[in-house]
Amino acid sequence: MTDTRRRVKVYTLNEDRQWDDRGTGHVSSGYVERLKGTSLLVRAESDAQLLLQKQYLPRTHFNHLYHLKFDTLIVWSEAENYDLALSFQEKAGCDEIWEKICQVQGKDPSVDITQDVVDESEEERFDDMSSPGLELPPCELNRLEDLAELVGSSLPSPLRREKLALAVENEGYIRKLLELFRVCEDLENREGLHHLYEIMKGIFLLNRTALFEVMFSDECIMDVIGCLEFDPTLPQPRRHREFLTKTARFKEVIPISDPELRQKIHQTYRVQYIQDMVLPTPSVFEENMLSTLHSFIFFNKVEIVGMLQDDEKFLTDLFAQLTDEATDDDKRHELVNFLKEFCAFSQTLQPQNRDAFFKTLSNMGILPALEVILGMDDVQVRGAATDIFSYLVEYNPSMVREFVMQESQQNDDDILLINLIIEHMICDTDPELGGAVQLMGLLRTLVDPENMLATANKTEKTEFLSFFYKHCMHVLSAPLLANTTEEKPSKDDFQTSQLLALILELLTFCVEHHTYHIKNYIINKDILRRVLVLTASRHAFLALCALRFMRRIIGLKDEFYNRYIMRNFLFEPVIKAFLNNGSRYNLMNSAIIEMFEYVRVEDVKSLTAHIIENYWKALEDVDYVQTFKGLKLRYEQQRERQDNPKLDSMRSILRNHRFRRDARTLEDEEEMWFNADEDDLEDGEAVVPPSDKMKSEEDLMEPISKFMERKKLKDTEEKEVLGKSSLSGRQNPSFKLSFSGSTKTSLSSPPSSASLNPGSPGSPGSPGSGARSSPSTTTVTTKGGLVGLVDYPDDDDEEEEEEEDGESKEDPLPPSKKSKLSS
User: Fold this and answer.
1) For residues 787 and 702, what is the distance between their CA atoms, to the nearest angstrom?
2) Who's near 476: CB < 8 A, 6+ residues apart?
3) Distance (Å, whole) CA 450 – CA 465
4) What is the enclosing helix (H) or strand (E) of 597?
5) Contact at 8 Å (CB) between 717 and 679?
6) Given this model, what pLDDT does residue 203 score?
7) DSSP 485
8) Is the per-residue pLDDT at 801 higher than 70?
């Protein structure tokens, strides 16, 4: 079968009985080998991804009821409470797919519904063969009970339900029933009215578009509502018709000249009222039976929006009256509410139609009109205008940005649209700031670079952010600056704190996404110092917002920010808040410690030095975490590198030399160590000269050069050295641990506590002492210039730590504490 591709929109009915747009694609019908049958396929037009795959099943299988509606719509129920719809762009494509569906299911394409057979019994199959249709009793007063029983018994069976729907439709039964209703109401026949209620409710559950078109016509709909007033479970009938005719009033804020449009609006309102107020809440089994009713309302709304959009005179009058200063407040209120509902209806449109809708509103001047409305004092009008503005921002933020940049060239900052939005956010009178939260979300969308366009000759991000920081940022930050002029917030009530938290949330977003503009603003306006005043707030959520703002800045690892923080001593309020929090284990404590831990782990050198040099005395007693001691260790290591740059250079040379050696070279050097002249090692002498004696690079290189000379003499001196070793009487040689300027230790016997200064890098109580006690790291050196190198990964760290206390290690240990060399 040849595939026929047509452009369609896929819809699904959600739990709220609203149609969700699943995407636009192209539909085809063909044989699918995997499914072993003819199937309906819809692939997305953007990436050819499969949006829908539906197999047509023959009548002998469980299959679904397909409806053809409005010439371009096919609707069916895929499963319980799961409806789908295909909306075709062209009628020809819809007709072709409908013909193929009917061909597989053995139906005439001229019908608008296919046969559905669900779990039919043998008796039903026999009835299907023997009786082509269902015979209805005469529409008479004394047969209403029989008709009510027939309708009730037919609903559980899809086959009988279909037969009943066809019979009611073909015999014009609905109009006969409504005539009988008027008779019963005149006679006050309560029993007959109760039967008519059950009958009319059952007809709704038949879920058939042709029946709805009759029931919702102008001459029938009020009588249908009348039938549904007499619920037998209620002691008194409802008064729905009275409400619709006397209480509910149709207001034409702008006269509608098209009678068809006016009739469609009336019909949609009444059908919506039936669905929401008149019909009883459907059971879980009946919910799916009203899918056609939901679809009827949905597509009515689509038609209304399209007809209003095409009426240029109507829209022109609407926006003219909205912006006219002579329009009174009540009239303007009605106009704004109409426009809000109009925009809400537009959400039912397909994307391409929605594009045209908002483009039409933009051309009509909706944004200037909103600017006028937002400047009014009426809270309800402003609220409706905010809802309309949210529709525009969510749909097309670039359109809004372009408008505000253009108006900035003509108007003052105070009356710019974005500044009006910011002012309404700041002045929200709601104690919970519900409106402010909504407006903050809209502002965040507008300043989000992710949805800004960039073309070859125009960069929206650069232009708009420059505009925003020049014309709007000072309005946004005004409450923050006004409330942080002293060491504590000027106003610390709950509503003010909530507002400041919202502003800080937006500023934090800007720090993450507007690197250049926000950096200049923060540094030039000293924003961070003012924000940190809020750490003294009695509201923990606001203090945490301030900490989060600073944490985002530090997380950028930008030296401009770091110099700004150090120059203004901006860690001081953070540490003050930490100390004031005391020993309480809460979010404040964790947030501050995490900030310092980040500085330590990421080794932000400038901030580490600043913190230790200025605040160490306040933090040195904090020992329940190792964060601050770790920062001190980082700082000491940095200072050591700065004080001994030549030593650092020497380590680099030695490291490069070590890692180039092979195993045989290492063995030769170890043998050279044992063959060395013992006379070079005199008791009581230091193995390596202290670091302060290393005056030049030549002194550092001298041991290496001597080692190379001794290596050449190895063969000639070997016997003599071994002879001396045998006479020395020393046994069990142990390697001396020797680092530049370090305390001598022995691997075979650890030094006593008397040989270690308290608090020195080698003492057990000092930070880092655990690494220093490792017995596996050795570097062997002799005074005479013999350098024995053993390569371990931790020796560099130990060397750096050992050098910290150079002066205390200058004096050699007593001879009793020195390690002994023996064979």
Assistant:
1) 10
2) 422, 443, 503, 506, 507
3) 13
4) helix 587-601
5) no
6) 93
7) S
8) no
CA distance 196 to 189: 11
In whole angstroms, give the CA distance from residue 616 to residue 599. Answer: 15
Q: How far is CA 521 from the centre of its chain?
A: 27
6-13 sheet: strands from edge to edge: 50-55, 37-44, 19-32, 6-13, 82-88, 73-79, 66-69
Q: Is residue 217 very low, low, confident or very high in pLDDT (cuts 50, 70, 90)?
A: very high
Query: For residue 338, what are its two tokens?
Result: 């109409």
Question: Do 488 and 536 form a contact (C-beta atoms < 8 A)?
Answer: yes
Tokens of 280: 């009883």
Q: How far apart are alpha carbons 781 and 151 in whole angstroms?
A: 106
Within 10 Å of residue 399's Cβ, how many Cβ atoms?
16
Residues in the chain: 823
In the structure, what pLDDT confidence band is assigned to residue 461 with cuts at 50, 70 and 90?
confident
Calculate mean pLDDT across residues 278-302.
78
The model's pLDDT over 237-251, given as tens digits with 9 standing for 90+, comes to: 999 999 999 898 888
Question: Under 8 Å CB-to-CB from 552, ≥6 apart: which residues?
Answer: 508, 511, 512
Question: 733 by DSSP, 3-state: which?
Answer: coil
Does pLDDT of 362 surpass 80? yes
Cβ-contact 331, 321 below 8 angstroms: yes
pLDDT reported for residue 35: 64
Contacts of 95 (CB under 8 A, 6+ apart): 109
Q: How far are the Cα atoms of 222, 279, 611, 627, 765 from residue 624, in angstroms, in the given order?
A: 77, 66, 19, 9, 15
Concatenated DSSP letters for 46-115? Answer: TT--EEEEEE---TTS----EEEETTTEEEEEEETTEEEEEEESSHHHHHHHHHHHHHHHT--TTSSB--
Average pLDDT value for residue range 312-332: 85
Q: For 1-41, what is each residue's pLDDT tens digit?
A: 444 557 888 888 877 777 888 888 888 877 776 666 777 78
User: Tokens representing 456?
Assistant: 């070859």
> What integer is the mean pLDDT of 538-554?
96
What's the rounded Cα separation, in Å, for the pair 819 and 680?
Answer: 16
| Token pair listed for 394 | 């969510």
With bands split at pLDDT 50, 70 and 90, how would you rate the model's confidence at 518? very high
Residue 319 to residue 365: CA distance in whole angstroms: 7
Give every CB contact of residue 437 below 8 A, 6+ residues apart in sequence: 502
Give the per-residue pLDDT at 416: 86
Between CA 678 and CA 725 the distance in angstroms is 8
Decide: 291 and 77 in contact? Cβ < 8 Å.
yes
pTM (two decimals): 0.59
Cα torsion for 723, 725, 729, 730, to the nearest 10°? Answer: -170
Determine contact, residues 802/809, Cβ cutoff 8 Å: yes
Query: Sorting pLDDT into bands at 50, 70 and 90, what band is 579?
Result: very high
Q: How confident is the model at residue 119, as a pLDDT?
A: 42
Residue 746's φ and ψ, nearest 5 degrees, are -115, 140
β-bridge partners, 37: 32
Helix or strand holding residue 737 (H, E) = strand 736-737
> 798 and 768 in contact (C-beta within 8 Å)?
no
HEC assignment per residue over 490-558: CCCCHHHHHHHHHHHHHHHHHHHHCHHHHHHHHHHHCHHHHHHHHHHCCCHHHHHHHHHHHHHHHHCCC
Residue type, 653: I
Regarding beta strands 787-789 and 779-781, do their DSSP bridges make them parallel or antiparallel, or are they unpaired?
antiparallel
Q: Is 163 helix (H, G, I), strand (E, B) or coil?
A: helix
The band of 742, judged by pLDDT with boundaries at 50, 70 and 90, is very low
DSSP states of 383-405 as a string? HHHHHHHHHHHHH-HHHHHHHHH
DSSP assignment, residue 472? Answer: T
Reported confidence tier of residue 659, pLDDT bands at 50, 70, 90: very low
